[in-house]
Design brief:
Blueprint (H helix, E strand, L loop, with lengths): L11 H19 L12 H19 L10 H25 L1 H14 L5 E4 L4 E4 H16 L2 H15 L8 H43 L5 H40 L2
Antiparallel strand pairs: 1-2
Length: 259
């Protein structure tokens, strides 16, 4: 008795196209998402994570994917548009992490740690150690607080906001990028404000003392104390700084990606 079930082989190209179209957007977004797309993660692992997400969400977003085009050029254009949308959305989320780098630079200059440079694995650039520490803590807290679920949900909701096959709104993307950049810089200034105030006070006091005692190298004497003050402030304020960033990150990701 033959129990074999005939496979509709004519449906395989259409099914493969659906998964390919979803993979193009998902992979582009996850390559830029904080935590998922870090430079120190191997490319094979990133592709594997994107493939798992694609297999999970494709049954949900299938109704939004248009039918397979009849010619190769139209198919390549559709895949290219999906990659562009994925890169744009992923870049907007990645820009939120810039607040930590800017805050780290300001804190480092205010506390005398600007010359302590290190490699930031989350950004792939050479930056201050303060910014690197803030970025690593932020990525860890994103996963601890399950905010990465918000990014994964945003991938699904993006198919209802930006339908596949349609040209993305370039002007809206540009305006959103400008707004996110301004808000990110504003958050960085708020996070580093206590260090700016203390650093300015210390340098004003040092300047006055150097005028009163010109024979004494007061800057070499006060510099270790300034660094110690910076470490003390960091120990007291790191929790509040991370809470401010996580609140901003959650609200921004929900606004950018969710319906």
């Amino acid at each position: 008795m033959n129990f074999s079930i005939p496979l509709p082989l004519d449906m395989l190209p259409a099914e493969a196209f659906v998964y390919l179209a979803v993979f193009a957007r998902v992979a582009a977004m996850m390559m830029l998402f904080p935590g998922f797309g870090e430079r120190n993660i191997q490319a094979r692992i990133k592709i594997l994570m994107a493939a798992v997400v694609v297999l999970t969400i494709t049954p949900v977003v299938r109704p939004m994917v248009p039918p397979m085009p009849e010619n190769m050029m139209a198919m390549l254009m559709l895949i290219g548009l999906e990659v562009v949308i994925g890169i744009a959305l992923g870049a907007l989320v990645r820009m939120l992490m810039g607040a930590l780098q800017v805050a780290g630079q300001i804190i480092a200059f205010s506390t005398g740690l600007a010359y302590a440079q290190g490699f930031d694995p989350t950004q792939g650039i050479q930056t201050t150690l303060v910014g690197t520490i803030l970025a690593i803590i932020a990525v860890t807290m994103i996963f601890v607080t399950d905010l990465h679920h918000l990014m994964l949900a945003g991938i699904v909701d993006s198919y209802w906001v930006f339908a596949p096959g349609n040209l993305p709104p370039i002007e809206d993307f540009a305006q959103t990028a400008i707004r996110v950049t301004a808000e990110t810089f504003s958050l960085a200034m708020r996070m580093a404000a206590p260090f700016l105030v203390v650093g300015l006070t210390v340098y004003i006091g040092v300047g006055i003392l150097s005028r009163l005692m010109p024979a004494v190298q007061i800057f070499f004497i006060v510099m270790p104390a300034n660094i110690m003050i910076g470490f003390s402030l960091m120990a007291m304020l790191i929790s509040a700084m991370m809470m401010a960033f996580l609140t901003y990150f959650e609200a921004s990701v929900a606004e950018l990606l969710l319906r």
